[in-house]
Amino acid sequence: LKRFQFWHRKFGRQGIEPERLQLYWNSASEGKEWAAKMREVHEVVQKYAKKLAEGVASGEPTS
């Protein structure tokens, strides 16, 4: 947890959105919760992939 907090702060100082670094604990009995969280993570990944593709297409620097 300390390493996660360290990297979360470090990324924030570098202008990287905090939602790009996530940490979750789930037990084996929490399959539905895990699936819901993975859908959320997938949406975040898709959002940043789209932003990256748009930035590459326009020649803008990306973070």
Count every beta strand, where a strand is a DSSP E run of 2 or more residues: 0
- Count of distinct structural domains: 1
Radius of gyration: 15 Å
How is the main sheet built?
Answer: none
Helix content: 55-70%
Please give the count of helices: 2
Mean pLDDT: 86
> Which structural class best describes the helix and strand composition?
mainly alpha
Distance between the termini: 24 Å
Dominant shape = flat
Low-confidence stretches: none
The run of helices and strands is HH
Beta fraction: under 5%
Structural description of this entry:
The protein is mainly α and 63 residues long. It has one domain (2-58). The protein is 63% helix and 0% strand. The longest helix is centred in the last third of the chain and has 28 residues, at 31-58. The mean pLDDT is 86. InterPro entries: MvhD/FlpD (IPR003813).
Task: Offer a few descriptive terms.
63 residues, 63% helix, single chain, flat, 2 helices, mainly alpha
Summarize the structure.
By secondary structure, this protein is mainly α. The chain is built from 2 helices and no strands. Keywords: Iron, Iron-sulfur, Metal-binding, Oxidoreductase.
